[in-house]
Structure prediction request, 318 residues.
Amino acid sequence: MTEQLRPDGSLRHLLTLEGLPRPVLERLLERAQGFVRPLGAAAAQSQALAGRTVANLFTEPSTRTRVSFELAAKRLGAQVVNLEVQLSSRVKGESMLDTIYTLEALHVDAFVIRDAEVGVPGLVAANVAPHVAVLSAGEAHLAHPTQGLLDALTIQQKKPRLSGLAVAIVGDLRHSRVARSAWHALRTLGVSDVRLVGPPALQPPDEEFPGGTRYTDLAAGLEAADVIMMLRIQKERMAEADLPEARRYFAAWGLTPERLRLARPDAIVMHPQPMNRGIEIASEVADGPQSVIRDQVRNGVAVRMAVLAEVLAAREGA
Ligand code: ASP
Prediction:
């Protein structure tokens, strides 16, 4: 696997949170927190990345993540190009790297990549020039590292003592890159009670999430939880026949106000979006006082600023 850190410990690429040392995560979160401004205040801005160019290459649909990376780069003074190219090596073989080399020749300094196929961000990272950074914006079901960081930041803002928390990740764990990246972030940051809550068919393979407790009973999984992280049913990663029926899923697994009362009274509710209201979460909960879903969105820009600042600014004078 491509090395994500430079010899001096700074971040060169961000492909996965798995294996990143705790001080690196803590540094990125601290840096991100420095970019967070209250709603209504002007967004944080600087010219730290003036003269740099970031290319967003997204081959899976995205609204928040793409816009958030774009705003993050622009608020640091970088230029941004958005391309809809077909990256999958399965589809186009070598032409993916031709696209990358062309963009490199156009002075692109960082590639932000989302793709449904496993391995695409890593393959690009293994082939770019030494001064170029690759950031994953979602790799198949495997990794969504900036989402994991923004989730950790959101939790930390509301519950600063992470180690004692009970975090319930609820729903389609099997197909969720959000769950995997949150898992790596939370474990590395010292959260010991991470609950994997979902029906047997949506639980991840046994060897994944080692040390996480599996719950196939929603009430038990929510009991006295401090944080409830709801997941979207990843329809696009399921065969038609395996899709749960919406009404039945909500009846068994939807987060309703009544079920939310099983958690601690000050529990926070998260969702990476896009939300299926009335399937995995009731609108009253998504828009209710315990929801931090909009904080997640705001923190997403801050986290992406922190990551871009680190991978690109380290090149000063290179
Ligand atoms: N937006 C998140 C992702 O790209 C969550 C989701 O789509 O369910 O994985």
Remarks:
- The mean pLDDT is 94.
- The beta strands are 53-58, 79-83, 110-115, 133-139, 166-170, 193-197, 213-215, 227-230, 268-270.
